[in-house]
Write a structure and sequence with these properties.
Layout lengths: L3 H30 L6 H31 L7
Helix pairs in contact: 1-2
Length: 77
Amino acid sequence: MTPSRFRRPLLIVAAVAAVLSLAAVGVVMAMAFNNAVSPVWITSTALYGLPAAFLLMLLLVIDGVAARRRTRRPDER
């Protein structure tokens, strides 16, 4: 499905997106606790970053399963 040379960069992008969006969620919550409004870009990162990272990681899991099935030995079926 995905060439192996793209798996590692996709994994890194997904992990960075997840970490950044979790940090953005923390910033939004801290600002809301202080009765302040967070900037739009921080709120957007919090809202869209985690689902995007989740979908990328789901794609990588599905690709890993498909790759494992392709490389399975004939006597294991």
